[in-house]
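Structural biology now treats backbone shape like a language. To illustrate, our science desk offers a sequence and the tokens encoding its fold:
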Amino acid sequence: MTGISEPGASRDGYGDALLDLSSDERVVVLEADLGKSTKSCHFRAKYPNRTFCLGIAEQNMALVGAGLAEAGKIPFASTFAIFSERAFEQFRNGIARTGLVVHLCGSHGGMHTGQDGSSAQSTEDLGIFRTLPGMTVMHPCDRNSARSLTRNLLSHEYPSYTRTARNKTREIYSEEEADNLEIGVASELRAGEDATIIACGVMVERSLDAAEELSHRGIEVRVVDMHTLKPIDKDAILRAAKTGAIVTAEDHSVIGGLGSAVAEILSEECPTRMKMVGVRDKFGESGSPEEIMNKMGLTSDNIVQRVIELVQKPGRT
């Protein structure tokens, strides 16, 4: 899977999926005054009677979702990733703890948002929701994968948090390839035996670029899209460990995010040399997406360097 086509944003895939699911009368959509930005507005335009606009009140949105789930509905709620954190307590006690199924989407996640500045750049959301028992946490990499994974939530038996991005990335999956994605099952995008890059979200695109550069240098790396951080695909991580070196790449804090999740598996199952590309205990700044990603070390060059540091260790053949 090395599809390179017209760029799109994963938030658009979320909006597409809501329309795909609209024929199921149980599906209801909740908004916290940001439907245009999260793309749930398209569902609202066609199905206003099944859309609940709750204003700037994320905590209330979560508990309204809990009530609707108790009544037999399948609620899809959305806001900005940074604002989803406001509803953490309600999601914990009113949804996850009680076993209700509500699906929350946080758009504009990570440093990739750029100009919105540090107060709006959520780099802890995936880690926060990953701590909740029974919670599913996903971060798709492009429009088509976001659409497919969101559609799969219709029959999912657990509450979920999905992070999407505002800025466009190139198409990683064709529509047909995306249709085969499964929640909790990682996708191998590129084969390689010298090392493995495990990435999620916007960093998947950059990881594929890094893999091409490394190939020019005689290093063949596997690239894995770990679109589901919880439940994480342990088997895919253990297969990656057989390459002897793993680099994780995420537009999120390395504390509690993808890198932490992979390290948790490796430390217990198969200790493996690894490095993490991610946000290093910092808040963001205001600037263009590329400026901020460069400053935070979230580039394909950073991934290349981390891989080289591992494969050139003494004793590696």
